[in-house]
Amino acid sequence: MADHITITQSDANWTVRAGGAVLGETTNALILQEGDYPEVVYFPRGDIAMAFLDSTDKTTHCPHKGDAHYFSVVTKSRTLENAVWSYEDPHEAVAAIKDHLAFYPIEEITVEQI
């Protein structure tokens, strides 16, 4: 793993909400810490209501993690474009985040420990 990335299993219960709806809740979150960036909570895909997410064509590349694929969150009032990402085929060093989703910390999305 890149020296500046750590992935740990959270021992807490996490939830993610958008547009007044609970998108998911898990006791199996992973916490990824990369350098000086804020830590990111990765939710197992099976713990997220995928009906609220639409896959997009956006991709980005991280030399340490691989190619990220994006999803938009569809709420009652609007669509939050490219607000969720996933590494479908991450580099071996960060393979733990495969089949997990992370959410941008924007005003309309709340990720919190409960």
Contiguous runs where pLDDT drops below 50 for at least 5 residues: none
Note the beta-strand portion: over 45%
Cross-sheet strand order for the largest sheet: 1-4-5-9-8-7-6
Secondary-structure element series: EEEEEEEEEE
Apparent shape:
globular
* SS class: mainly beta
| Average pLDDT, all residues | 95
What is the rounded distance between the termini? 30 Å
Largest sheet: 7 strands, antiparallel
Total strands: the figure is 10
The number of helices is 0
Give the helix proportion (percent range).
Answer: under 10%
Radius of gyration computed on alpha carbons: 13 Å
Folded structure, characterized:
The structure is a single chain. The protein is mainly beta. It is 0% helix and 54% strand. It has strands spanning 5-9, 14-18, 21-26, 30-34, 40-44, 53-62, 66-74, 79-86, 100-103, 109-113. Strands 1-4-5-9-8-7-6 form a 7-stranded antiparallel β-sheet, with no helix packed on it. The protein has a 3-stranded antiparallel β-sheet with strand order 3-2-10, with no helix packed on it. A hairpin with a 3-residue loop joins strand 6 (53-62) and strand 7 (66-74).
